Amino acid sequence: MPFYFLAAAALDPTEVTNREYLQFVSATGHPSPEYWVNGRFPVGTDHEPVVLVSWHDAAAYCAFGGKRLPTVDEWMLSCQTGNLKKRDNIWEWTSTDVGAGFKALCGPGYTCDCSHRYLPEWKNEVKGFRCIRDAIPVTWLPLLFNAGLVS
After folding, report:
1. Are 101 and 63 in contact (CB under 8 A)?
2. Which CATH architecture has domain 10-146?
3. Cis upstream peptide for 31 (omega within 30°)
4. Radius of gyration for the chain, computed over Cα atoms and rounded to the nearest angstrom
């Protein structure tokens, strides 16, 4: 009997916040975003999405947490099924290359638009990100076949 694998990835429910990014900066010594003062985000913005981060910053944050940036397809699937909570008017970095060294961004607000393309080192006040964790493949599917639940 064939051995089937089922794996699903779990996209973070919201964009990475200033508070979450501070934990990464403190643990790794990674540079903080330009709008932070003395390595700290502005008072009252701890739960707002971190912005002014490049694709490289976002990828490093995700890797630090054992995650990665989502692809456009992964981001779109979550958006179109209503599984994305979004705060503010943020375009989110993805891992998808779109040619000539550019990366795709998805967002903003409550749209499922993935039309923005930027160079990975670019950053501004409306670029943030969320991460995705790859799931461990599930290998128990042969049990379903043996039980007659799947044919």
Report:
1. no
2. Alpha-Beta Complex (3.90)
3. no
4. 18
For 1-151, where are the E strands, in sequence order? 9-11, 91-97, 103-107, 113-118, 127-128, 132-134
- Residue 4, burial from CB neighbour count under 10 angstroms (0-12, 13-18, 19+): middle
Q: How far is CA 94 from CA 55, 103, 119, in A?
A: 8, 7, 12
What is the pTM (predicted TM-score) of this model?
0.84
Residue identified by tokens 């409550």 is 110
* Both tokens assigned to 40: 């700290």
Give the containing element (helix H, strand E) for 80.
Answer: helix 72-80
Would you mind telling me the total number of residues written for the chain in this entry? Answer: 151
| Tens-digit pLDDT string for the chain (151 aa) | 455 444 567 899 999 999 999 999 999 999 999 999 999 999 999 999 999 999 999 999 999 999 999 999 999 999 998 878 888 789 999 999 999 999 999 999 888 999 999 999 999 999 999 999 997 666 655 555 555 555 5
Structure tokens at 6: 């089922």
Tokens for 38, please give them.
């003395």
Amino acid of residue 91? W
